[in-house]
Sequence to fold (328 residues):
Amino acid sequence: MSFSYTFRVGTPRVGRQHLANRIARGTRFSFSRLRTPTAVCSGPFSLCGAQFVRRVSACPNPSGFNHTGPGQVFKDANRFQLIADYTDDPFAEEFEELVLGTSTDGVHWTWEDFLNTDHLFLEMHSPVMVADPTKEIICGLECHGHSYWWGFFNFNTPTTAGTGRMKVDVSTAYPRGFRVHILSGGVWQQVDDSTGFVNFAPDAVWPGVFSRSLMWNVDHWELWGYKNVSPNGCAPCSGGFYDNFGAGSTFTYRQVAGINGSLGAPQGVFSNIRCMPSDHPIGRLYPFRVNGPSGRRFLYSTTNDANACKQLFNPFQGTYVVVTEVSN
Fold:
């Protein structure tokens, strides 16, 4: 099974910029081993003090299988929100539901149905959302305060895969407390208010790219994602067995002009300490961008560079999280 967890992490320590990538490859996350190894504490970027708090993901099928994949936590007023993909498929191959988590402290969460699909036609994954500060009061027979969430999600259909676009009107005026719109055919299509069933195909606003973070960077929004690319010969290791499975991987990002605004041109991400792109399909995955309190720019991501030469059948085996400082 796969779950979502809450962690508390100590203050990161950063040394020279070009060494900021040297974070340890941690232990596999489990209930009993969720602490960064002691050896990491001497490195230039430390996550010492990371402690497992509790599992937070929904478990609607206690006697069966539950798999969840989180999107991006965001805050609306005094509540934290998180939209996650969910399935009870034993092999976690068919995701046909999104669930909405709400928390006042980031630790204790309640869950409700958000969207659902016919998985043979459409699967939706890992929404990255933010709350728009705009508030409206709309008066009909009674007044309702409206707030807005907006962002992106990953999806695949039999013919298309990539990033789609979503916005949510939050108000007690609606049966479930919110109304969801998804960009489809160049217009915002409304999802059924009562059932949350999505029976239309989203537009791929970024075909072939899967988005994993939406963040405010100084004076603009940035959407970060990853994609597969043609192998380029920049292998993460030498010697032993190595198979690039016919694809490499890399990061990319675009500026976004707000809830209804346009997306800027895709930007490349380059490095003098890591292959970028990587020649391995699992080399550069799940980028999460965040700026520290002092303005330092950090990029968390998943890689498997250390184990790329050891896998025979499963390229995901042994994946771990690294952090890099972004220079501009």
